[in-house]
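Please produce the structure of this protein holding zinc ion.
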Amino acid sequence: MKGQIIKIISNDYFVKKDKEYICKARGKFRKENITPKVGDYVFFDEKEKVINSIEKRKNELDRPPVANIDIALIITSLKNPAFNTNLLDKLLVISNLNNIKPIICLTKKDLLTKKELKELKPTLNYYKKIGYKVIYNTELFKIKRIFKNKTVVLTGQTGAGKSTLINKLDKNLNFETNEISKALGRGKHTTRYITLVELFKGKVLDTPGFSALDLTNYTNEEIKKSFIEFNKYNCPYKNCNHINEKECKVKKEVGHNILKSRYENYKKFIEKR
Ligand SMILES: Nc1nc2c(ncn2[C@@H]2O[C@H](COP(=O)(O)OP(=O)(O)OP(=O)(O)O)[C@@H](O)[C@H]2O)c(=O)[nH]1
Ligand SMILES: [Mg+2]
Ligand SMILES: [Zn+2]
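Below is the modeled complex.
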């Protein structure tokens, strides 16, 4: 029988077909160093309750460990936790390189003063300018439209409001949420397990947030390629890395047509390894 993994709690794999089956994974997976992930389509024996094989994945991520994703809703807090372009730019790199469409979803606008919002606007508008879709978590009508026939992962910093947003989208869902101070006080993230549920004729995955993320799985060449707005500049050096090369056109645009924090993050991503 074929089903989809919708949750994993230690060695228990929750596989959904017509109903849920709690299965174990065959020992061969561990031997072959394969980890079944939430989102995986699996062939399983419903009597023995064991997963025999995993269908070839469309794509997969390691952090969060999920498979077969169409869209990443990058939940980005504007305050508490503070707006963090480093994490946002990393998540854009990861989405781009795994064939996942990123959508930036901003939260906690209500906590900003008018002045604070005004200061952030040029940065937020920049992401729109270079082609990303940017929405607020209050625009539920826009968010609802994203799901149809799509598998959407909510990812982002811990406390940014992932689980809160899912609960708002579907009043029947009640994922655990927590005030950030309490969450940090416990030294733990509120959401502990990745969970896949159906939503608006599609699927959504709530995931545990993180406070830091690394890009060690990706090469510098890949990271460069994923900074989509740099690609349109024709630098004189054919394989310009936009770092030390003279006459680099990307460097010249920093602070003008290229957002300074984007370039600084790019440098950090390729130098810190
Ligand atoms: N003021 C304000 N608070 C929000 C907003 N969205 C979420 N919150 C609050 O932020 C806190 C954290 O929200 P969660 O939904 O638990 O955050 P999370 O991203 O799921 O966190 P993890 O599960 O740890 O990754 C809760 O107290 C929410 O009520 C928002 O737009 N404005
Ligand atoms: Mg959560
Ligand atoms: Zn260059």
